[in-house]
Specification:
This protein is α+β, with helices and mostly antiparallel strands. The chain has 2 domains: 153 residues, 3-Layer(aba) Sandwich (Protein Transport Mog1p, Chain A), CATH 3.40.1000; 129 residues, OmpA-like domain (60s Ribosomal Protein L30, Chain: A). The chain contains 7 helices and 12 strands. The strands form 3 sheets. A 6-stranded antiparallel sheet has the order 3-4-8-7-6-5. Strands 9-12-10-11 form a 4-stranded mixed sheet. β6 and β7 form a beta hairpin. α4 crosses α5 and α5 crosses α6. The longest helix is centred in the last third of the chain and has 23 residues. The chain is elongated, with a radius of gyration of 22 Å. The termini are far apart. The relative contact order is 0.12.
């Protein structure tokens, strides 16, 4: 049997702008692959509790973001054997553990898809076998997620540290009151006419203004003109019925994403019912996971575009 702890790599989280001493971690096995993303400034939703039935309670932390995923040569190593030495090192570095959980106590599927995870294959999470912890010390927050496959172990470490903002270019002042038709950056030009025309002529339309975070079935807060457009089409076509079809990015397994995409479609349907009074018998919710991408899943922008809901005309009787 392999030893539980195999000192293999000293991992240093040292950002140039970081004012505190760099955190170093000894990973418990040989590193076979690594993926990294960083941002300055960056933000991260730090989980603080298990999935509560609606979402994962978290606190947004901002600063210098460093997130890394490692695939380790550790066949047969348990998630506890992976997490225990990392937890000990984090505590020894002066961090206070805020939250720690294991699969079921985390919330299983819902917790995994309610947190920020580097996509497959760089970071693999077995929905039935993973562990998570979050911790903080003055000016820093960290989370560690560990899981495994049949032949490898996977570790994701996310750290956010206080850091000065980089210099910004000269700013331009714009008087929004003088700009006719000004819209927020997140507002897309979705109109009743555009959605209605697409449904009448093509039998389908993409609800482009909906926003879903990776792994989340909940609509982000905001006003969505596309929902009003769908409700208007149903009112103008009293014999028509629609199917809401959810889509995901390629983070995670197909089965999990099909379930997630259906929940996204259901969330849109629920909004139509509660906000616009749509008859529930006239809409159906389905999910196809990541089987019908409209952009690459290799970039964050592409993954964002793939997290969507489409509406399809199913009957005009």
């Amino acid at each position: 049997m392999r030893q539980a702890i195999i000192p293999a790599l000293q991992l240093c989280f040292a950002l140039a702008a970081q004012p505190l001493g760099a955190l170093t971690l000894d990973l418990p096995a040989k590193v076979l692959g690594e993926e990294r993303r960083s941002a300055l400034p960056g933000s991260y939703a730090l989980p603080l509790a298990p999935f509560d039935g609606t979402s994962v309670p978290s606190r947004m932390v901002e600063g210098a973001l460093d997130q890394r995923a490692f695939r380790l040569d550790a066949p047969g190593q348990t998630t506890l054997a992976l997490m225990a030495p990392l937890r000990d090192q984090v505590q020894a570095a002066g961090f206070t553990i805020l939250f720690e959980c294991e699969t079921r106590s985390c919330g299983g599927f819902d917790f995994r898809f309610g947190t920020e995870v580097i996509p497959e294959p760089e970071m693999h999470v077995d929905i039935g076998d993973y562990r998570f912890l979050s911790a903080e010390r003055a000016g820093e927050a960290i989370s560690i997620l560990v899981s495994r496959s049949a032949y490898s172990a996977f570790v994701q470490v996310t750290q956010v540290s206080d850091a000065p903002l980089p210099d910004v270019p000269e700013q331009t002042v714009v008087d929004l009151d003088e700009v006719e038709g000004s819209r927020g950056l997140d507002a897309l030009p979705v109109t009743d006419g555009a959605i209605g025309t697409a449904l009448d002529e093509n039998g389908r339309a993409v609800l482009d203004d909906l926003v879903f975070d990776s792994g989340s079935a909940a609509l982000a807060a905001g006003d969505y003109p596309s929902l009003a457009a769908v409700a208007a089409w149903l009112k103008a076509n009293p014999d028509g019925t629609l199917a809401l079809v959810g889509h995901t990015d390629a983070s995670g397994s197909l089965a999990a994403n099909i379930a997630l995409s259906e929940r996204r479609a259901e969330a849109v349907g629920q909004a139509l019912i509660e906000i616009y009074g749509v008859d529930h018998t006239r809409i159906a919710a389905e999910g196809v996971g990541f089987l019908a991408p409209r952009a690459t899943n290799q970039t964050e922008e592409g993954r964002r575009k793939n997290r969507r809901v489409e509406v399809i005309v199913t009957s005009t009787r």
